[in-house]
Write a structure and sequence with these properties.
Layout (H helix, E strand, L loop, with lengths): L16 E3 L6 E2 L5 E8 L9 E7 L7 E7 L10 E7 L5 E6 L6 E7 L10 E6 L3 E5 L5 E7 L9 E7 L7
Antiparallel strand pairs: 1-3, 2-3, 3-4, 4-5, 6-7, 7-8, 8-9, 10-11, 11-12
């Protein structure tokens, strides 16, 4: 059986609406849960769609805005949507996000302080969406993502890319 669904209250957060998650939340070593979602109307900018991180310290009953993974004021870069995160064995949080810029590439960045602050996002060689991240037992980070004919080229399907350096290169 399942509990009744509940909506995340965004009052006091730097955005008015959320969507997601597109990927699984992550349980941190202290028992808190981090959930990547999309934030809309960030700081009153209707064009600013951001990848944001929500945090729960009560097993998902309530959520607070923990940080902004990446944002795009004025939609200059193509929005940051459908964020995925993984907590690497090193303690680094790695994020991968859909982007609707000209390349339709996945953008990535990382946090070395449990998601409080994030590196500047950078465009990766991966083209598609949404991304899903896990760390394999041998330490590599695996990113899988969808390819949609007409949007990302042919053939369609699912692709996989690896990072051997904690998400710095793919």
């Amino acid at each position: 059986t399942w509990s009744e669904p509940s909506f995340i209250e965004t009052k006091g957060m730097p955005f008015t609406d959320t969507e997601g998650p597109a990927d699984a939340p992550v349980e941190m070593p202290d028992g808190s849960i981090l959930m990547p979602v999309m934030g809309y109307n960030v700081r009153g900018d209707i064009k600013n769609q951001a990848a944001v991180l929500l945090k729960s310290t009560d097993q998902g009953k309530t959520w607070t805005h923990w940080s902004t993974i990446a944002e795009d004021p004025g939609n200059r870069l193509g929005h940051f949507q459908e964020p995925a995160i993984v907590l690497a064995k090193s303690g680094r949080l790695i994020a991968a996000m859909r982007n609707d810029g000209p390349a339709k590439a996945i953008w990535t960045n990382y946090s070395d302080d449990q998601g409080k602050t994030w590196s500047t996002p950078k465009e990766s060689p991966m083209v598609g969406h949404p991304a899903d991240l896990i760390q394999l037992s041998d330490g590599r980070i695996l990113c899988t993502y969808g390819i949609r004919p007409g949007s990302h080229g042919d053939p369609g399907g699912i692709r996989a890319t690896f990072s051997t350096d904690n998400g710095m290169t793919w």
